[in-house]
Write a structure and sequence with these properties.
three-stranded antiparallel beta sheet, alpha/beta, D-Maltodextrin-Binding Protein, domain 2, single chain
Length: 274
């Protein structure tokens, strides 16, 4: 009798365990990112965290899916999302461009950042001057003939390519562009082979906050219709075309958070008390 009772209990527990596993076996939503772009995505205690991670975790709850972030090279993200085989979402401070729109669908923009230039503090007088809006900034013209680092595939990379092409401010000035996979490596090389690094404002400030030998300032246009206007970068999340349920959920989360909610997440990951 005892043996029969034991078997019965074991069977019931087995069913219970199977039921729990079935309930927790959610579909996985793989998100590609490049985790060197604090506060939007970065590594903390061995995990990928940041603003984009929190946004996508909320999307996962809305879709009842497990969200898995994978750290890859930035310039591989859009093509991977376009293929839709290894991942269906890219969240890495990605800007909407016509070329990218041909490949993927984009959420609404959720954050606007100004491009910044990191330079050696000792060379501040070479680069920085007061703009018409009273801000101390750096114009594209000040980068003529310089060795310029960027993160490959980013908006900074695209903007710099335009300025170095025929008709651009830096055309025929002997300026060079060096793309890096890692922002940290690019920053280190500003002290060695590169004169400056162009990236977005918040990661620029984060990367140099403990290094007094480096400084940063906003990048401005000088002349033409965009005279004395800052170079800006607007972020969105890219999704495989046709994945409308995922895209709609992302837009719903962005709407629910609103500008204040997004800024609160930014402040949280910058360690700024509200």
């Amino acid at each position: 009798m005892k043996k029969i009772l034991t078997l019965a209990i074991t069977f019931v527990l087995g069913l219970s365990t199977l039921g729990f596993a079935a309930c927790s076996n959610k579909e996985t939503l793989v998100v590609y990112t490049e985790a060197g772009f604090a506060p939007f995505e970065y590594i903390s205690d061995g995990k990928i965290v940041g603003v984009d991670v929190e946004i996508m975790n909320l999307v996962g709850k809305k879709l009842d899916m497990e969200v898995k972030f994978e750290n890859v090279g930035f310039d591989t993200i859009v093509d991977a999302v376009s293929a839709g085989k290894l991942c269906k979402v890219g969240a890495a401070g990605i800007s909407i461009t016509p070329d990218r729109q041909e490949k993927v669908a984009f959420s609404q923009e959720y954050y606007t950042a100004t491009l910044y230039v990191i330079y050696k503090t000792a060379e501040e007088s070479t680069y920085v001057s007061e703009m018409s809006d009273g801000v101390n900034g750096i114009t594209w013209e000040k980068l003529a003939g310089k060795n310029i680092a960027v993160q490959g595939g980013t908006t900074a990379d695209l903007f710099l390519g335009d300025e170095m092409a025929d008709g651009g401010v830096l055309a025929n000035t002997n300026a060079t562009k060096t793309p890096y996979d890692s922002l940290a490596t690019a920053v280190a090389d500003v002290k060695l082979n590169q004169d400056v690094l162009i990236i977005d404002e918040l990661p620029a400030k984060e990367l140099i906050k403990n290094d007094s030998t480096l400084a940063c300032a906003p990048l401005y246009y000088d002349g033409g219709e965009e005279a004395d206007s800052p170079a800006v970068d607007k972020y969105a999340i890219c999704v495989t075309k046709g994945e409308d349920e995922i895209l709609n959920a992302i837009n719903e989360v962005i709407d629910e958070l609103g500008a204040e909610g997004i800024q609160a997440l930014v402040n949280k990951h910058l360690g700024i008390a509200e």
